[in-house]
Write a structure and sequence with these properties.
2 domains, 15 helices, 9 strands, single chain, seven-stranded mixed beta sheet, 363 residues, Nucleotide-diphossugar_trans, alpha/beta
């Protein structure tokens, strides 16, 4: 935990982000999330946004306050067990000193409603998390959860008296909840000793700390696109390439032009694709679906840059095939469409798709 924070004024509520490292994709994620939060504000509403970062210069000119994190702080927050996501719990705990209500938000989050609708859910002994994922009883027998299960048994937890596990992509707490975060950090340290099989231990620890309290879900107010990053990263890169990253009111307005869901063909197109793949073997069906979904994405300026997201998924599936079968797809440039793959609905996409797959294979 850092010894001191910069002298920021304590506020009634804050939207809090954590971002570190110099990867462009995460900087764009954070900035786009901030834009969606601002775009959803109602007339007369204001918002205190704070960003904990090792690169405060990236947010110069943006309507945010930055908390500078040095290398020593980031190393301390990671802890001695090398668990990266421990930093998130530490950031929330430290942020509690800066506001009566803190809404921590992962950078891969889009606001669909005003953040104030979420702040209203935070109350004494009532917390906010992104969304319910599963009960401990559902996963406790999985091989990768057995070691954690041994730790939880020491706390009297078993399949018969399990607790709910929430996604912590969004976490709403109060200044008085410091003991809750401190307990979660202690459990993270206990559960990551030696080695660990689960990379979501941080959100399990926070869920465990909240197990006897009321937890409200926020997923109707936000879209946490953690499973579909490839599509949103493509759209955000396109957005900032068009308009730049210098903040201005027009940037807030323009962010609403970017779709808030991934590109999926129309119901009629999906039915056609399903019929087209009906006789394919299972592994070919998965690849064919991704290739055809990319080819049949709805027409939209931002969806046009997303088609590679579907084709990338197909490419990764093909890498799991045997070498001979891969070569039928990745073979000589100029060869026709592979016989084992279903043809895209648009013939013009055949060469585009093959060029993409073969270029990826050649890297």
């Amino acid at each position: 935990m850092p010894s001191a924070l910069p002298p920021l004024e304590k506020t009634s509520q804050q939207l809090l982000y954590l971002i570190y490292g110099n990867q462009d994709v995460y900087r764009r994620e954070a900035k786009f999330s901030i834009l969606t939060a601002l775009a959803q504000l109602k007339q007369g509403e204001s918002l205190c946004i704070r960003v904990m970062t090792d690169r405060p210069q990236d947010f110069a000119g943006w309507p945010v306050e930055t908390v500078h994190l040095d290398e020593q702080t980031l190393a301390r927050w990671q802890g001695s067990n090398g668990y990266t996501h421990r930093r998130k719990a530490c950031a929330i705990a430290q942020g509690l000193k800066l506001a009566d209500k803190t809404l921590f938000v992962d950078t891969d989050t889009l606001f669909l409603k005003s953040p104030h609708r979420v702040f209203e859910l935070i109350a004494p002994d009532q917390y906010v998390m992104d969304g319910f994922e599963y009960d401990w009883s559902y996963v406790c027998q999985r091989p990768d959860y057995l070691k954690l299960g041994e730790h939880l048994q020491a706390h009297g937890i078993c399949a018969g008296n399990s607790f709910k596990l929430y996604n912590s992509g969004l976490c709403g707490v109060r200044a008085s909840d410091t003991p809750l975060l401190e307990a979660a950090i202690r459990w993270i340290d206990e559960w990551t000793q030696g080695s660990f099989d689960i990379h979501t231990i941080e959100q399990i620890a926070i869920s465990f700390a909240m197990r006897d309290k009321t937890v409200r879900e926020a997923n109707r107010f936000v879209h946490h696109y953690f499973a579909d990053k490839r599509f949103f990263h493509a759209m955000q890169a396109h957005f900032f390439s068009l308009y730049g990253e210098a903040f201005g009111p027009e940037l807030v307005a323009r962010c609403l032009d970017v779709p808030q869901v991934k590109p999926v063909p129309s119901p009629w197109q999906r039915l056609r694709i399903k019929w087209k793949l009906r006789n394919q073997r299972k592994h070919l069906k998965r690849v064919g679906r991704d290739l055809l979904y990319g080819s049949s994405a709805p027409k939209h300026p931002y969806y046009d840059v997303c088609r590679h997201g579907w084709w990338e998924s197909a490419f990764k599936e093909i890498l799991g095939w045997d070498v001979e079968e891969q070569q039928k797809v990745f073979g000589t440039d100029g060869a026709g469409w592979p016989k084992q793959l279903p043809r895209p609905l648009k013939r013009a996409d055949e060469q585009v798709i093959l060029t993409f797959l073969r270029q990826r294979a050649a890297r």
